[in-house]
Amino acid sequence: MKPVPVPTPETRPFFDAAARGELRIQRCLDCGRPFFYPRPCCPFCASGALEWFTTSGRATLYSYTITHRPAPGFEDEAPYAIAVVQLAEGPRMMTNIVGVANTPGNLVLDMDLRVVFEQRGDVTIPQFTPVEVA
Q1: Averaged pLDDT in 10-residue chunks for the chain of 134 residues
Q2: Burial environment of residue 7 by CB neighbours within 10 A (0 to 12, 13 to 18, 19 or more)
Q3: pTM
Q4: In this structure, what are the phi and psi dihedrals at residue 37, rounded to the nearest 5 degrees?
């Protein structure tokens, strides 16, 4: 069984939105910069004045590694990519690429991606798939 994240007070809005099929991240109300991962203050200016907003769900592939020795719970999916994507709104997010064979020929840096969601127990996890994949 794949591991399931345990939402914290800081991450609960992120996971609640994912359960509704929305990718939400935080933005600072003082400096205006969006950021990810969820936290109680802005990593750029240290302000506590933050808001959650729904992203476009679009991203590009920034970097990845193909894992051939799977972590517990992922044995049936190897090889699989652990990727960093750059959201259209700016922040980067670690994720998995799904819906396409995870080979260097299929995972082209800067390729266009869109968010999809995977249910794991009581938690919904955002992942990304190439835009061309329906």
Answers
A1: 92 98 98 97 98 98 96 91 97 96 96 97 96 72
A2: middle
A3: 0.93
A4: -95, 160
Mapping DSSP onto H, E and C, the string for the chain reads: CCCCCCCCCCCHHHHHHHHCCCCEEEEECCCCCEECCCCCCCCCCCCCCEEEEECCCEEEEEEEEEECCCCCCCHHHCCEEEEEEEECCCCEEEEEECCCCCCCCCCCCCCEEEEEEEEECCEEEEEEEECCCC
- Token duo for residue 72: 């517990």
CA 16 to chain centre: 14
